[in-house]
Amino acid sequence: MSRKCIRFILATKGLTKSEIRHIIKSESGFTKKGDYSMDDVKAVSTALDRLYRKQGDLYHEYASHYGLSDIAFWILYTLCGADETYTQNQIADLWHFPRQSVNSAVSSLVKEGYIFLEKLTVARNNKALRLTEQGVEFCQSAIFPFYEMENRIFNKMSEDERNQFFALSAKQCELLEQEIKAALMEK
Questions:
Q1: What is residue 186's DSSP assignment?
Q2: Which of 56, 92, 135, 156: disulfide with 131, CB 3.0–4.6 Å?
Q3: End-to-end C-alpha distance for the chain, whole angstroms
Q4: Chain CA centroid to CA 97, Å
Q5: CB under 8 Å to 122, separation ≥6 — which residues?
Q6: Mean pLDDT, the chain, whole residue set
Q7: How many other CB atoms are there within 10 angstroms of residue 134's CB atom?
Q8: DSSP for residue 140
Q9: Is the Cβ–Cβ distance between 12 and 23 less than 8 Å?
Q10: Largest Cα–Cα distance in the chain?
Q11: Which residue, among 112, 107, 76, has the nearest Cα to 91 in the 3D structure?
């Protein structure tokens, strides 16, 4: 494994913004085409996966603090800021959650009194997810502060950093999807 790769892994372990910024600035040659050995790729992929998992853990910690499952949190996250109507299937598709998991989370949110299901006139089988008054109050105390936190986070990045972050994340996801589909087609 190259020294650059080892420094990248060690520097991202703590996940501090200054460490990551230092790596990006000081290792500008790290990402040149052909610099990666198989071990380098595995190490960097593992470090990125750990970052994604840590971010997931942080979302889980926030949701748990408010007595929500991860999926229930993302359902409320979607409904609280939405001008449009969502069904369970749309939520499952939007967030890439299993439909049964969304169904369970919806049942839990209904029992807690945060949402109710409303029949849609256009589709007999689909029901809209709607916030109750208690759900709106809960969103004001738990979800809207989360939106504000995300806003503060993104405002600490320059517009260029935000654009790069999104573009590179989307590109990595798209390339991963292509590679997985290609690999599965071969088998």
A1: H
A2: 135
A3: 30
A4: 12
A5: none
A6: 85
A7: 12
A8: I
A9: yes
A10: 62
A11: 76
Q: Under 8 Å CB-to-CB from 14, ≥6 apart: which residues? A: none
Nearest-CA neighbor of 73 among 122, 112, 44?
112
Query: Cβ–Cβ contacts within 10 Å for residue 109, how many?
Result: 24
Interhelix angle 3-13/38-65, rounded to 10 degrees, is 10
Q: How far is CA 136 from CA 64, 81, 102, in A?
A: 19, 10, 20
Give the separation between CA 142 and CA 63, rounded to whole angstroms. 9
Pairwise CA distance, residues 80 & 83, whole Å:
9
What is the C-alpha separation between 105 and 72, in angstroms, rounded? 5
Write down the pTM of the prediction. Answer: 0.76
What are the pLDDT digits (tens) for 123-146? 667 899 999 999 999 999 999 999
- Residue 117: Cβ within 10 Å count: 15
SS3 of residue 87 by DSSP: strand
> pLDDT (tens digit, 9 = 90+) per residue, 57-76?
999 999 999 999 999 999 99
Task: Tally the residues of the chain.
Answer: 187
Neighbours of 132 (CB within 10 A): 15
